[in-house]
Design a protein that fits this description.
The structure is a homodimer.
Chain A lengths: L5 E6 L6 H12 L10 E6 L2 H5 L15 H5 L6 H13 L9 E7 L5 E6 L4 H13 L4 E4 L17 E8 L8 H22 L9 E12 L10 E3 L16 E5 L4 E3 L21 E12 L2
Parallel strand pairs in A: 1-2, 1-3, 3-6, 4-5, 5-7
Antiparallel strand pairs in A: 4-6, 7-11, 8-9, 9-10
Helix pairs in contact in A: 1-6, 5-6
């Protein structure tokens, strides 16, 4: 793979996820912490109006607008649809981008700790995962490589390589010091990796790295009128990345009943009870644990 | 004091505090859990439009509109100002209310557990505090009796007696099962107390009860441009109702410095890093511990 020359650190893709927004402010005042030998590192505040309105988004989720189809559809013209086109022009265009690498900073209300979401499992990314885990064992690697990077709708798919840094638990519109520091530390390790990768000076890496491979998303149960009739079960709440066995309860019904996990595999829930996912009535994402050999 | 004949349980005074809203739905389907001998118990969904918009409020905080001055000012006509007048007409009017007792259900993003906020320290309330602690030792009693109940701006001040049930930690726009159950249990004990009080059948109560008496509110530090320059210190985060000694750090500055508690008393912070209080740039409330004799 070619060297990474230019990096864009994106904050505020969702306007009420404050850690990235505050880190951007900090780095815009003093960029020493994000500068690396051989790299041009810029910052981009993605959804400024959503932040001013203290909302995730004004019209639609900015982080789902970056497919070729949506970027090229001139009839899509609301705030986030427009913002996506502007960002794509600024650091893209997708498929032939000026920027080489995007680090997109996000928060979750779920108890996911410092998570790194990767969208492809190529050698470059697997080595990055191994490097990050080597230097920050508390970090968690999520692999979402079901479809090619170029077909992903996420902002970080503008560039050929890019990642999502996802840190929680943090309520929307709040800054927690622990979460802020996790995000800063994780971002720092990614930048270190890029510098060392470019210079061909990576340290000896472990032979394998454990990742959580996304499998499916569970919804909240509804009645025939579309009203929610249950919530995430207390046994699952806050237990992100803990094993969920077939038969374990996952949903507590308001009438006192419960729904159990009926899959045929040991699942690792994450994004458990994420506030932003209520819009789509989602209860949690599931993953399988997978061990990747480091090339 | 006269008997309590009619009780109004209010949910959704803030549209993104879901526990009360979901409990109301549950009780509207099946009211057995809130019916008590000798009491008429009704429910009221206060800020319906804020809930539909998934926000705390549309125009202003509904739970600050219930002073006589604001209720009587016809020029105050935005959504929440109007909603306050309608609610006051429905279960008030304040000072001569049809309802005798309001239980107003709230959530906080702070780690406050099941908290009961009382606005006056009369015998009726102190006995209630003692009864609640006797049956739910994990409950916390907050006393905000600096000004007379009748001068308070809160919705529950419409009636001569009324309380705020405040339960967290729960992110805005999320339902946690543990928080929902705490709120239901605390509300149930309050209703039990009212029934027993009316019937003069209260059990023997402890001789004293510990409460947290509100003293003051700390703000987040800002620079000369009004931009925040610090956040709640990690040593304080989630430590609601834990002793804060003079000299203890309370704020972490983004530049690496810190601000310490400079008061002359041992303070008990609560509403620590509450999301909704960022609007007013508040970091936390403080209290002193106080032991009240039960009459």
């Amino acid at each position: 793979m070619d060297k990474i020359n230019s990096v864009t650190i994106v904050g505020g893709t969702h306007g009420n996820e404050y850690s990235g927004i505050y880190l951007l402010r900090k780095w815009q005042k003093s960029s020493a912490a994000i500068q690396r030998e051989g790299l041009t590192v810029d910052t981009l505040f993605a959804n400024t109006s959503a932040f001013e309105n203290n909302k995730r988004y004004l019209d639609c989720d900015l982080n789902r607008q970056f497919t070729h189809e949506r970027l090229n559809d001139r009839t899509l013209s609301n705030y986030e649809e427009s913002r996506a086109k502007v960002i794509n022009a600024q650091i893209g265009p997708k498929g032939a981008a000026k920027s080489d690498f995007i680090i997109d900073l996000h928060n979750t209300t779920s108890n996911m700790g410092p998570s790194l979401i990767l969208l492809q499992s190529d050698a470059f990314n697997v080595k990055m995962a191994a490097y990050v885990k080597q230097h920050m064992p508390e970090a968690v690697i999520i692999m979402e490589d079901q479809i090619p990077m170029d077909e992903q709708p996420y902002l970080c798919s503008i560039t050929k390589q890019g990642v999502i840094v996802e840190v929680g638990p943090q309520p929307q519109s709040v800054i927690r010091q622990d979460v802020l520091e996790w995000m800063e530390t994780l971002t720092t390790h990614i930048l270190d990796y890029l510098e060392l990768y470019n210079a061909d000076k990576l340290p000896a890496l472990p032979a394998s790295v454990e990742v959580y491979e996304y499998t499916e998303t569970l919804t909240l149960p509804m009645d025939e009128h579309g009203e929610r009739i249950g919530m995430v079960h207390r046994n699952v709440q806050d237990q992100d990345f803990k094993a969920l066995n077939p038969g374990d309860p996952i949903i507590a019904l308001f009438d006192g009943g419960e729904i159990c996990w009926e899959g045929d595999y040991v699942a690792y829930p994450h994004f458990i009870n994420e506030a932003a996912y209520y819009d789509n009535n989602l209860a949690m994402s599931l993953a399988k644990k997978r061990v990747l050999e480091v090339p």
